[in-house]
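Re: that chain you flagged

S.,

Sorry for the slow reply, it's been a week of failed gels. I finally had a moment to sit down with the sequence you sent. For the record, here it is as I used it:
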Amino acid sequence: MITKTNQKAYEMSMIILETYVPENHLLRRVDQSIDFRFIYELVEPLYSKIGRPSIDPIQLFKLLFINHLYGYNSMRRTIEETKVNLAYRWFIGLGVEESVPHFSDFSKNYTRKFSQLIDVIHPITGVIETKSVFAAVFDRILAQAYEKDFIRAAHIYMDSTHIKANANKRKAEEVFIVEERKSYQDALNQECDVYSDETGIKRAKEGKPKVNRVKQSTIDPESGNFHKGEHEKQFAYLAQTVCDQNGFILGVKVNAGNYHDSRTFYPAFDEIHQVFGKLIRSVGVDAGYKMPHIARELIERQITPLMPYTRPKGKKNNEEELRIVKKKFMYDVSADVYHCPNGKILTPRSISKESGYITYRSTTKDCKKCPLRESCLSQSSATKTVQRHLWQPYLDEVELIRHTQYHSHYYALRKQTIERNFGDGKEQFGLRYTRYRGLKKVQDYMYLLFASMNIKKIALRQAKLTLQPHVLSLYNHLIHSLFQRKTELKFQFNF
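Prediction finished late last night. Pasting the structure tokens below so you have them in one place:
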């Protein structure tokens, strides 16, 4: 029923969407900064040349980007918002009277077409690779930031964050899983053999493969049972993420949530090193990555590891403080022995090829009548044992780097880059949890999410560069006006 209050809603008018989108609108800045035509090239092999016309793939991907840029919790809601939002319609190229793609059409294209693997040429390295469409889209967006000279890959930062899985924590079963072989195990075994042959130190017996009993979700078996600190146990995924000095996401690798940071370091770093290897000068990480094998990997590649100070582990009580701990034993590099606080020597006795730790032990004679025995040994021990990793010199070098001005300057940027990305992702882009199940689907989801974050960074940085001359002119005008006003006041005062 038409009344005086709603009669304008029934009036006919000509609408030009361009005029209804503000100049400083995020989507307008995105449209001016990003060229999405590369999507046609990527998805061309996935479409048939016969049959009825298909939905424009750029429209479908722009709907995905809107979903992430504005933090909507579902594509259904994104499509409903697009129906009534003029800026969204303008961005995806739909008129006021044109219908928005139905959710079922979007879902079929997402699962049947875009989830497939394709052969693409990496836009930065030029190497032919086989990857998903979403990974290729992520690479193309990153390449546009690289072409605009926004990427600063000389100093990169790595960290991981947990994403809550779409799985009920009560629906789980206990399974036994054999621990995976470490990626650096061959190199460690080789160096342990060399050390044993040179010193004559015996090799410790290798134990059986470690079998862990873990809880596995019956809904999403590829997720991992995650528990950190006082947080409640839940099934989650671990997103190992790399960003540059300007905060652009360079890469991401998704693993099960029960993996440690040190285990997921290599796949993510190797991928980034293949693309930006010649540019990388340093890598900033937190204490979870402060391991001998990671320090060795970076130093061997002539990359400076930026790692934090780690507090001594153990109980914090008076009894523990009175005990003689490992740090009070002095290591002699030339002789490869430890000197105890009482001046006695601990010599190397064995080396473990599995862990890479060398065991140093004192003699029963030296410890039997030692005045420091009660504070040094337990009641059941007759000798003192100290362990040192074969690659400990690399960690010692890390400690020397930590005391330099170089470390202080660049490590401080970590909280402004990778930590800021995680904060923005969880608060604005829906990084806290995922609706998808399975490692591959979650990996594609992360590619889209971080591609959206990079799109926003490119748009804002491009707008800043565009407005910079105007801002500078305004600043100069303001300074000139203030100077004139100050001169006038001074003249009046003197007069």
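What I noticed first: Residues 13-114 form one domain.

Talk soon,
D.
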